Amino acid sequence: MARTVVISGGGSGIGFAAAETFAADGDQVVLLGRRQEVLAEAAEKIPGAAFFPVDLTDPRATRAAADFIYQQYGTVDVIVHSAGGNGVLETPVEHADLLEAIAHDWTLNFRLNTLTAVLLTEALKERLVDGSGRVLFISSIAAYRGSGRVAYGAAKAGLHPYAVRLAGELGPRGITVNVVAPGLIDHTPFFGEPMTDERLKRRVEETMTGRVGVPSDVASTLHFLASPAAGHITSQVIQVNGGAETSH
Q1: Mean per-residue pLDDT pooled into runs of 10, the chain (248 residues)
Q2: Rounded CA separation 103/92 (Å)
Q3: Of 73, 144, 152, 162, which one is the catalytic site residue?
């Protein structure tokens, strides 16, 4: 039986790879994101995919997206939170004062990576299917290493305690909640511009597998965690980084 799988940030990168993976298994995927053109193009590539443009940092807009999903599908089987980013794709804002710049950076990363996931979850959790529902968050190796932009890593780390609390709340309904924390994933718009060869070489050397990750590595992990085989796995953070976190 086809499941309804809601994927935020589903128009590109890991979110799009997850959408392809779930759709290939016969699931109905609903793509959410801010960029209508990107969502529309992604939906055209995935049979039966639906999409709804929404700014998930906006409570009213998030409620509108939830209402659309309720009206079209009634219930939700899986939520994949792939929306986020480190802010490099946002419109630059100049601040004369250092503290204002820091406040902007940390607030932006919190809104993009933590608030989007929390608002969408709270809007949809009552419609999650009892006995088999799944909530899946995307964190980052930066939440452990403090690498890259610290505000980004901190915002991703904020998802971990929320997932634990949510797992306890939804567990009695037979719903699991887990976090996937990728390392460097190639073929995504995360960095805005391609890495230099030197930096990429250093990142590869940090892994035990001798390669960077690709979106399908994360998508496959998400797909497993959403499967019946993972029904007794909850409140966990699964790292997908080729051992880079432990070798650092």
Answers
A1: 95 96 97 96 96 98 98 98 79 83 93 97 98 98 82 96 98 98 79 67 84 94 98 97 78
A2: 14
A3: 152
Contact present, 220 and 52 (Cβ < 8 Å) = no
Contacts 24+ apart (CB under 8 A), 43-47: 45/20, 46/19, 46/20, 47/23
73 is catalytic: no
| 3-state per-residue secondary structure call for 93-126 | CCCCCHHHHHHHHHHHHHHHHHHHHHHHHHHHHH
Partnered with residue 5 across adjacent β-strands are 29, 78
Paired tokens of 135: 């909530």
Distance CA 174, CA 140 (A): 26
Domain 4-247 -> CATH class? alpha beta
214 class by beta-carbon count within 10 Å (0-12 exposed, 13-18 middle, 19+ buried):
middle
d(CA 14, CA 138): 9
Say what angle helices 159-170 and 116-124 make with each other, to 10 degrees: 10
Q: Where do the domains of the chain lie?
A: 4-247
Q: CA separation (Å) from 31 to 19, 65, 139?
A: 8, 10, 19
